[in-house]
Amino acid sequence: MAILGAINPMLTVGLDGDNAWRLADYVKRDGYSALRRILESGIGQGDVINEVKKSVLRGRGGAGFPTGLKWSFMPRAFPGDKYVVCNSDEGEPGTFKDRDILRYNPHAVIEGMAIAGFAMGAARGYNYIHGEIWEIYERFEEALEEARAAGFLGRNILGSGFDFDLFAHHGYGAYICGEETALLESIEGKKGQPRFKPPFPASFGLYGKPTTINNTETFASVPYIINMGGDQYLEAGKPNNGGTKLFSVSGHVNRPGNYEVPLGTPFAKLLEMAGGMRGGRRLKGCIPGGSSAPVVPGPTMMDCTMDYDSISKAGSMLGSGAVIVMDETTCMVKALERLSYFYYEESCGQCTPCREGTSWLYKVVHRIEHGKGRADDLDLLASVTTNIMGRTICALGDAASMPVQSFIKHFRDEFAYHIENRKCLVPVDVQRAGSGFFTATA
Amino acid sequence: MLTPESLKRIDREIAKYPADQKQSAVMAALAIAQEEQGWLSSEAIECVAGYLGMAPIAAYEVATFYNMYDLKPVGKYKLSVCTNLPCMLTGGVDAGEYLKRKLGIGFNETTPDGLITLKESECMGACGDAPVMIVNNRRMCSWMNPEQIDKLLAELK
């Protein structure tokens, strides 16, 4: 099934058939009508950008930056090559929505990118797809072939004189390529190491040309915005948080999966849609926006609504909409240890504070988890994070630090217990039962 | 040293990029070379670099930066198991332990018959399907409980 649950969905409507991803089915769902209307009715580039601005569509990849504003930064009258790039390098732990958008509705992404290309005067685009989802990459290539054959991509689209071609580029296992300038380096055939900013991609992007990078879900939302109008899209969410959003719910819930709901939907409702807590256990903590977002204690989370502003007030970030649910069987030290290992493993090594700092973070959390913690380790961790944050080229260093700070802030007693008693507060067999792995076949 | 079929596939990748940006195809070309040869030897990397007109060191940088390239020979099947937090909460670490016990090897080791290499992997972007694992960088396997793992192992011969 394409989607496990939805409230007033747009992106995931009518996707249950086996061929829902194909061009013919997409066209039946009104697909490519937005592009057609723009090209045939002489709607201007500025009009398209204004419509996207009105919708208050905010970047779905994690930063939540207003998409229309980003598009307006492109020097669209600049002669010469310009690019639109889609970031489908979905590797933020907890996030798996773009995979399903590409799997079930790839033409929405293609149409959104073509509209973006028109609005920003770009004739070429790339979709950078996470290497681990190879079957999805191959499907996207097939969808591109369909779109080219039908004249929705290529030269002189629908006889309008507008040229736009789009290609798929795959990653091959590097989290950092989700950072937009690392992603550009990667398309250029280099190590994925982030660039200094400024200059920003809108002036110096792919191959040094003006480039706009948006997330898969962001592009996929564009045809719906054009079709329903920016105002109506905004109303589908809540003020300053336009539209619906896909939330990837993982961890200790009965029905992990993707759910499309209007921004502003209560977290409690989303949790209920995901089948509630596994085994009826208590919600201990939740990471509401992917592993880089600070953890939120269970009771606080239950009072949140799922939108950029509410989650920000709770001290975290809506990020990519990856909701990692942890129940009372979770050892928070072990959870943090695994996340810290991830950032240590994925630091690109370019900036010293991140390269060395992520290694320190992992080693110290690791020794606490393994009964070798020292009395001043929590202070040491705090000091390492403050020495990383704000001192690196990209946000990976901050992303590695925020989980450490927030886990210790909210679950300090558990860390202190580990250090004093050299063991977990949560018994190991309870943790093991929590994963449900060995009971699955029982 | 690459077959004409592989070179043809690489040509198709090169065509995706502007004529003066052949290097952009290096990631795909290395993946194709690895698919053909099972792993990336220095010779294979140099061959790709030569074909794309880039310095061998530049291709080597790419091959060593991205995790899915294998710079040493691996078993006939490479099994990459995600143990990152969302998977861990739903049995990813247990799945790794289960595989280690069943195969009698640890992560980054190969069974003595050369059939299976086990790898620990970072987030594959499929956390709703946890535990997840990938066979030979291509086939994602979802909801891998002990029963499903047994089935997969029986199939990999």
From TrEMBL, chain B:
<dbReference type="InterPro" id="IPR041921">
    <property type="entry name" value="NuoE_N"/>
</dbReference>
<keyword id="KW-0001">2Fe-2S</keyword>
<keyword id="KW-0411">Iron-sulfur</keyword>
<keyword id="KW-0408">Iron</keyword>
<feature type="binding site">
    <location>
        <position position="87"/>
    </location>
    <ligand>
        <name>[2Fe-2S] cluster</name>
    </ligand>
</feature>
<feature type="binding site">
    <location>
        <position position="82"/>
    </location>
    <ligand>
        <name>[2Fe-2S] cluster</name>
    </ligand>
</feature>
<feature type="binding site">
    <location>
        <position position="127"/>
    </location>
    <ligand>
        <name>[2Fe-2S] cluster</name>
    </ligand>
</feature>
<feature type="binding site">
    <location>
        <position position="123"/>
    </location>
    <ligand>
        <name>[2Fe-2S] cluster</name>
    </ligand>
</feature>
<keyword id="KW-0479">Metal-binding</keyword>
<dbReference type="GO" id="GO:0046872">
    <property type="term" value="F:metal ion binding"/>
</dbReference>
<keyword id="KW-0560">Oxidoreductase</keyword>
<dbReference type="Pfam" id="PF01257">
    <property type="entry name" value="2Fe-2S_thioredx"/>
</dbReference>
<dbReference type="GO" id="GO:0003954">
    <property type="term" value="F:NADH dehydrogenase activity"/>
</dbReference>
<protein>
    <submittedName>
        <fullName>NADH-quinone oxidoreductase subunit 2</fullName>
        <ecNumber>1.6.99.5</ecNumber>
    </submittedName>
</protein>
<dbReference type="InterPro" id="IPR042128">
    <property type="entry name" value="NuoE_dom"/>
</dbReference>
<dbReference type="InterPro" id="IPR036249">
    <property type="entry name" value="Thioredoxin-like_sf"/>
</dbReference>
<dbReference type="InterPro" id="IPR002023">
    <property type="entry name" value="NuoE-like"/>
</dbReference>
<dbReference type="GO" id="GO:0051537">
    <property type="term" value="F:2 iron, 2 sulfur cluster binding"/>
</dbReference>
<comment type="similarity">
    <text>Belongs to the complex I 24 kDa subunit family.</text>
</comment>
